[in-house]
Structures are given as structure tokens and as C-alpha cells.
Amino acid sequence: MHSSIYARALPRKDQQRLHQLTEKLLCTKSYEGASGFTVSAAIRARIALHACIPVLNLGLDYYADWASIVIYPGDFRVYDESMDEFGVVHREMLDLCGQSLSQGPIVLSWETIQEERKTLGDHDLVIHECAHKLDLLNGAANGFPPLHTGMNRRAWARDFHQAYRQFCTGLDSRGSHRLDAYAAENPAEFFAVLSETFFTAPHLVHEDFPAVYVHLQDFFRQDPDRIMRRIKS
Ligand SMILES: [Zn+2]
Description:
This protein is α/β, with parallel strands linked by helices. The protein is about 50% helix and about 15% strand. β1 (about 30-35), α3 (about 40-50) and β2 (about 70) form a beta-alpha-beta unit. The model has no long low-confidence stretch (mean pLDDT about 90).
């Protein structure tokens, strides 16, 4: 049932805790198919398992703000209204593969999740959307989730800001990057993409943004790079 390399690499006792947490998340959230999609038990289990990875050492209270996960067979269309810095309102239709708003469910495209399964790359839509939910716990999505006591807020802001600028500049000059280019969209997406990569290809975050890796390690209370290196050696 494990479809996450990281989950498989965890020590046995952590795997057991992850399973217990997954069972609990399966009972406490509703999983709804949209556009006629049927959500099987296996699909529910896979999504719940991935959703539990970021909160393995935080607990399900971090997900207390939302009640359901909506799954579309593929990309879904949303109507978006946003105001730019000049006060001009822009209205557009967007095709999305995932969405987490401050109020409401996590919305996912099953097609995207299945593609990730085939490629075993560094994408994890469920973790990405869960990272947005964690970011939203203390207000707007801005790449700044509620930090634990003892964590340095100023150092977090400084290092994420620096890494984000470095990432955007790198994109400009070389036209490509080792991390998903979508991270350049805004600081909230940068945090979500880095969180996703932290659990799928942690060496990329560790090598490219070592200071940010340490902050994510402190926030999630996990060290995926160390765990993944063990299975490689
Ligand atoms: Zn996102």
C-alpha cells in the first residue's frame, strides 16, 4: 500500500505510527468524488497516507481546520477573481490539479496523483496541498506557517526570502532549475513545492537551500535526507 519512497524508508516504528495516523485520518475526514469519480478504499488510503507524512511528528490537530478531501478524475476548472496592486480586479477561469483554500476542502486531481505514481519523481500533490493547509493555519498563505516555540521567526523569514530570490534569479539566468519551476510563482508556492520536495527528493532541498532545509527539518520534526540516504547506501 505504500506508494511513497520516504514512507517505505522510515524506521519500522515510524512506519507503524504513520499507519495509525493514516487510519485515524481515514475515519476523521470525508473523501468525496467529484464529476462522477468513484473514490475506492485504495484511493482513500493512498491519499490519507500521503497527507499524514508531513504531520507524522506534528499530529492530526494540524489538520483540524478542514473536514474533507474532494477528488476529481482529472484537472478541474475554477473561477478565480484577484485584485492586482493597482486595484484592478482580474477574473479568469483556471484549470487546476490541486487546490487548498483557507476555508474548505483540499481538492485533488486523481490523474495527477496517478502520473506521479508512474514516474516516482519529486512531485507529491497531496503533500503540496497539505503544506498549503499548514501555511494557512496562521492566516494568509505566505510561506510562513506557525513555527514551534524556540524556532527563530526572523531566521525563517530571512532564509526563505533569500532562497526564493535565489530561485527566481536562477530561473531567469539559466531558464531551468532542479526544483519545480512553479515554486517561483510566489512565496506560498515556494514553501509548498519545497515541502513536497523535502519528502520526495530531500537531497535537492538540502543541497540547493541548506538553511531552508534545516528550517523545514525543525518545522516538520523530520529529517528525510538522512532517512533516504540510508536506503541509497
Ligand atoms: Zn500550490
